[in-house]
Structure formats: structure tokens, C-alpha cells
Automatic annotation (TrEMBL):
Residue ranges of the TM segments: 38-67
Domain Transposase DDE: from-to ranges: 7-48
Pfam families cross-referenced by the UniProt entry: DDE_Tnp_1_2
The name this protein goes by in its record: Transposase DDE domain-containing protein
Lineage: Bacteria, Pseudomonadati, Bacteroidota, Cytophagia, Cytophagales
Keywords per UniProt: Membrane, Transmembrane, Transmembrane helix
Top-rank taxon: Bacteria
Organism: Dyadobacter frigoris
Amino acid sequence: KHVSPGERNPIEGKFGQAKTAYGLNRIKARLQATSQSWIASIILVLNLVKLAGEALLCHVVLVTYSARQMKFEPWLRNRQPQLKLAA
């Protein structure tokens, strides 16, 4: 299956991040199983970092939403409905 270059950019970027920041290009294990364990550990760390960032973003959004609800809640309680039903 052919993959367009735009779809490959995030994948290539993650490999670059794994090589520069997490030492994926410096694995010098002698056994194949040990090398595979190192690679799996680095990929696990990449995923944990991404999930931690997403969790932080979700927390910020929830806190912001809660603050807005608390700020506008009294205004919403005292407001009369605008729509009147015709009989």
C-alpha cells in the first residue's frame, strides 16, 4: 500500500525524536532479545510522554470549562427563558 509523504512525516519525526532524545541510535546490546527489549522500552517511553501531554491538555480544558461554568452559572439561573410557546 502506498503511503503519501504527508502521512509519513509524523512517523519519521517520532523516529528522529527517539534517536536524538532517547538514544534509539545508541543501542549496543549483544543479544537480539536485549536489543528488542531496549527498542520496546524506548517506544513505551515515547507513548507515555505523548499520553502524559494529552492528559495534561485534557486537565487544562476541564479546569477551564469548570471555571467558565462557575462564572456564568448564577447568570444562567436568574435568566428567564426567551422562547414562548404559542397555544
